[in-house]
Design a protein that fits this description.
Elements lengths: L1 E2 L6 H11 L6 E2 L8 E2 L41 H13 L6 H12 E2 L3
Parallel strand pairs: 1-4
Antiparallel strand pairs: 2-3
Helix pairs in contact: 1-3
Length: about 120
């Protein structure tokens, strides 16, 4: 079980995901079938689970392909381990799954409000 941090609650996490993710995985279109690449922020503005929590004033395109945990100033709602687990739930979802439902279920099962 992971605890929220940095002033986040489970409800705020779910709300943020619904605001910044369009309900689908955030991927760059593939040049070949099944070779999609997850992105913090896709060309259409959609965001992956971790990308939902990277503020606009911190995000830079150069972050793509790098670990967000190495960047200063990002106040993630969970520990690094918790955010990695949340991202895994995003990545393991099918391209047709509703990411809002997948991530909300993961949060409700694996997170408790902290602080």
């Amino acid at each position: 079980m992971y605890k929220t941090q940095n002033g986040w609650t489970k409800a705020k996490m779910i709300e943020r995901i619904k605001q910044r993710n369009n309900g689908k995985r955030s991927v760059r279109p593939a040049s070949r079938p099944h070779a999609e690449v997850c992105m913090y922020r896709a060309p259409d503005g959609n965001r992956c689970a971790v990308g939902c929590f990277i503020e606009d004033n911190i995000y830079e395109a150069d972050m793509e392909g790098c670990s967000a945990y190495d960047f200063i100033g990002i106040k993630f709602p969970l520990s690094k381990r918790g955010m990695r687990s949340l991202q895994c739930a995003h990545d393991e979802a099918g391209l047709t799954d509703n990411i809002h439902e997948v991530l909300e279920a993961w949060i409700n099962k694996n997170v408790k409000d902290g602080e």
